[in-house]
Design goal:
With 538 residues, the chain is mainly α. It is built from 23 helices and no strands.
Length: 538
């Protein structure tokens, strides 16, 4: 499809690829959309949760997860540019079990992963609802719940800071301030707890884990967001999706990097050189808690960087941007190969540039999760997910932390929700044609994309209302994506050695990294499946 939303096969518009750096940068875009999708559930929720559970131990896995899959991503983009095929059309030709006219094994598994991805988006829209419910509660119950939750998390964070300060070179004045703050939060928590006991009864309060029943404000806000997104996606086009998502993500990524940088002057929370050394030793956390952290990290591996969903959808955005259309239909002649090499170079700039963006954001979120949440013993959960994550910004921004984080979490989570729904609509529309369940013409696909774009946000809302546990929903989607990674790695090798014309094939060094990428994805997917089976049998 074109930038205007018209089917991509209406007009064949061959174009000479840019040669200068400035001209190349102006033609980037698909990677920015992918980065907007990535810097959301994977980074803000799953990565920080992994840091909270594992401390700094798994920093190496986070870095590997960001970098290693780009080689496979570029092979998917290479195949789209030279063949003009969508991802599902190409995957349906990968060797293996198939039902003629109705797809093959890899397309069938995608349907299972697709359901998990919708559950992941259900968790994301719920998280957006939580952020808005914290900043603008709609009910009196919601306002009182916020005060209780703020006191609970504030007390835990203050106690952790006070204990850490006793073993560090912290002035007596600051220790006094920390002690006073911890006493104030504790007194507020006890007062709020007593108030809730009187309202709902001591027995009910204990049954809920010494906390009040959650309000419905997050669900109301999630419904408003889902309906608004449905309308925008129904009317949206490529350019709007690209720049809207880029603006949201770029702003909060900058805030997060500034936060991490300023944190380094704080003797309590700064990331020490020993922490980095621990995180880069290619080891896993010890003990039973370490197994839980590794399981979370492997699920995170599936969605950080270019996860399975982003690998699949990236060629669609390349096609909509026009890289294949500008190259033109395949012709075994020098001018076609010259154009193909040029647009492949643009696509590689696009892929590697987006990798730098989301890697910086991912590492920053992981280090913040390990340094603050991990040391405080806070694990983002259920209705307190967003509120817990906001504590990562308090040491630097103080009273402004919650406001900044709520803006930022809305930005990155909503950008992911927005882009992922648009992406899923394109992939499912195409898949229905590949499976012979709907017309496969470009005009029919375009009509389905509009309908599905409007439908998916509402489906995600229903999932969250039925299962209001955003972190678990996100990790479920990540696990299913991790299991699909080896399948996509195998497909990338098939594209490289069977489908790519000889003049477009990369060199031996690239092949080495592509095989390492495929091997790493296979290990991660296999390990995630084995650990999940062990958990089920335990």
């Amino acid at each position: 499809m074109s930038d205007s939303g018209e089917p991509s096969d209406v007009v064949v518009h061959v174009e000479t690829p840019p040669r200068s750096v400035a001209a190349t940068l102006r033609r980037l875009g698909p990677g920015l959309i992918v980065a907007a999708s990535i810097v959301g559930s994977g980074e803000l929720i799953a990565t920080t949760k992994a840091g909270a559970q594992a401390g700094f131990w798994l920093l190496w896995l986070i870095l590997v997860g960001c970098v290693i899959k780009v080689f496979v991503q570029i092979e998917f983009g290479r195949n789209a540019i030279h063949s003009g095929q969508t991802t599902m059309e190409a995957l349906s030709e990968v060797p293996g079990p198939r039902w003629k006219g109705h797809g093959n094994w890899i397309v069938w598994y995608w349907f299972l992963m697709f359901v998990g991805s919708l559950s992941q988006l259900g968790g994301i829209v719920g998280s957006v609802g939580q952020a808005l419910a914290i900043s603008a509660p709609l009910t009196e119950h919601g306002r009182r719940f916020n005060r209780f939750a703020n006191a609970s998390i504030g007390w835990k964070s203050a106690e952790a800071a006070l204990q850490a300060s006793q073993n560090l070179d912290v002035t007596p004045e600051r220790q006094d301030r920390l002690a006073t703050r911890a006493r104030q939060w504790k007194a507020e928590l006890e007062r709020m707890s007593q108030s809730w006991r009187e309202q709902i009864g001591d027995k009910r309060f204990r049954e809920l884990g010494d906390r009040p029943p959650p309000p419905i404000d997050d669900k109301i806000w999630a419904a408003i967001i889902a309906v608004a997104t449905s309308w925008m996606l129904f009317r949206g086009r490529y350019r709007f999706i690209q720049w809207f998502s880029t603006l949201l993500v770029g702003s909060f990524t900058a805030i997060t990097l500034i936060n991490l940088g300023l944190l380094q002057v704080d003797p309590i929370w700064h990331v020490r050189w020993d922490d980095i050394v621990t995180g880069m030793q290619f080891r896993v956390p010890p003990g039973q808690e370490g197994s839980t952290a590794v399981m979370t990290a492997l699920a995170t591996f599936g969605i950080i960087g270019v996860g399975a969903s982003e690998l699949i959808v990236y060629p669609y955005w390349c096609l909509e941007k026009g890289y294949a259309r500008f190259t033109g239909p395949f012709k075994d002649e020098p001018s076609w190969y010259e154009r193909a090499h040029g647009w492949l170079r643009v696509m590689q700039w696009d892929a590697w540039g987006s990798m730098v963006i989301y890697t910086l954001a991912t590492v920053a979120f992981y280090l913040l999760g390990a340094a603050i949440l991990g040391r405080s013993g806070l694990d983002p959960q259920s209705h307190e997910l967003i509120r817990t994550l906001s504590t990562m910004y308090e040491p630097v921004f103080g009273d402004w932390a919650t406001i900044l984080f709520l803006f930022g979490s809305f930005a990155v989570l909503y950008s992911t929700f927005f882009v992922a729904n648009a992406s899923h609509a394109r992939v499912l529309s195409d898949t229905l044609g590949v499976l012979g369940l709907a017309q496969a013409t470009e005009a029919a696909k375009a009509r389905r994309i509009r309908v599905l774009s409007a439908l998916f946000p509402i489906v995600c809302l229903v999932i969250y209302v039925a299962v209001p546990r955003p972190a678990q929903l996100v990790l479920l989607g990540g696990l299913l994506q991790a299991i699909m990674l080896p399948m996509l790695a195998a497909a990338a090798l098939f594209f490289r050695y069977v489908r790519t014309p000889i003049p477009l094939r990369p060199g031996r060094l690239w092949d080495l990294f592509l095989w390492l990428s495929a091997l790493g994805m296979a290990i991660a997917g296999g390990a995630a499946l084995v650990l999940k089976i062990r958990q089920f049998l335990a």
